[in-house]
Design goal:
The chain is mostly beta strands. It is built from one helix and nine strands, in the order βββββββββα. A hairpin with a 3-residue loop joins strand 1 and strand 2.
C-alpha cells in the first residue's frame, strides 16, 4: 500500500507499507512482520532540484519466522532480514524546462525501393 500526502509549502509525504499473511507450504509455515516506510520530498528551483529524506522500516520489524513440523522433528527459525535505514537523496536536473530539439533523420529507404523495382 502506498499513499502520497501533499503538505503545505509543496512538501510531499510518501507512506508505504508491506504486509504478507502467513503462508503454509507443505510442512513449512512462514510469517513475516509488516513493514512501514516514509519519505518527505520537496522540489526547488522550478523543479530542477529535488531533495528527499526517507526512513525505511520505521518500526524495526524485519523478522521472518519459519516453523517446520515433522512427526519426530520440529524446527523454529527466526531471521532478522531488515534493519532501519535512513537516506537522503539530492537530485539536480540540468535540462529541466528546456526545449528538446529533434532532428529529422533521412534514410535511403525510398531510394532502395526504387532501385529494387
Amino acid at each position: 500500500m502506498t499513499n502520497v500526502f501533499y503538505l503545505p509549502k509543496d512538501f510531499m509525504l510518501d507512506l508505504n507499507g508491506f504486509y504478507m499473511s502467513p503462508t503454509i507450504e507443505g510442512n513449512v509455515k512462514m510469517r513475516m512482520d509488516p513493514q512501514v516506510n516514509a519519505s518527505v520530498h520537496k522540489e526547488f528551483f522550478n523543479r530542477c532540484l529535488s531533495v528527499k529524506l526517507s526512513v525505511n522500516n520505521i518500526f524495526d520489524t524485519g523478522m521472518i519466522r519459519l516453523k517446520t513440523k515433522e512427526e519426530d522433528f520440529h524446527r523454529n527459525i527466526r531471521v532478522q532480514y531488515k534493519y532501519r535505514e535512513i537516506g537522503l537523496t539530492v537530485r539536480y536536473n540540468f535540462k529541466a524546462g528546456k526545449n528538446v530539439q529533434v532532428k529529422n533523420v533521412q534514410t535511403g529507404a525510398s531510394e532502395e525501393k526504387e532501385r529494387m523495382q
